[in-house]
């Protein structure tokens, strides 16, 4: 709707469409998710670490950092 110039700002879109600002902000953050992570989640095969708390938390903006966050710390070698 923003791309088509129907609305000129996020505030206008939220007010006109009666969307909760907090919810909208959380959903907007999901648009920054690395494409492969988004695809895995939509296909029903997300990594176990990619749960709702992580998605609604503060994800790193860089896709490589997101992937590293999901992978977790490296396993200790024996």
Tell me how many strands there are.
0
What is the straight-line distance between the termini?
Answer: 54 Å
Class of secondary structure makeup: mainly alpha
Give the strand content. Answer: under 5%
Task: Using the alpha-carbon principal axes, give the shape.
Answer: elongated
Report the radius of gyration as a whole number of Å.
16 Å
Strand count, sense and closure of the main sheet? none
Number of helices: 5
Order of helices and strands: HHHHH
Q: What is the typical, i.e. mean, pLDDT?
A: 82
- What is the helical fraction, as a range of percent? 40-55%
The poorly predicted ranges are: none
Number of self-contained structural domains: 2
Walk me through the structure.
The protein is mainly α and 78 residues long. It has 2 domains: 1-25, no CATH class; 33-71, no CATH class. The protein is built from 5 helices and no strands. The protein is elongated and about 40 Å long.
Produce a short descriptive summary:
This protein is mainly alpha-helical and 78 residues long. The protein is built from 5 helices and no strands.
Secondary structure layout plus pairing:
Blueprint: H1 10-17, H2 21-29, H3 35-42, H4 52-56, H5 63-71
Key terms for this structure?
78 residues, 5 helices, single chain, 0% strand, mainly alpha
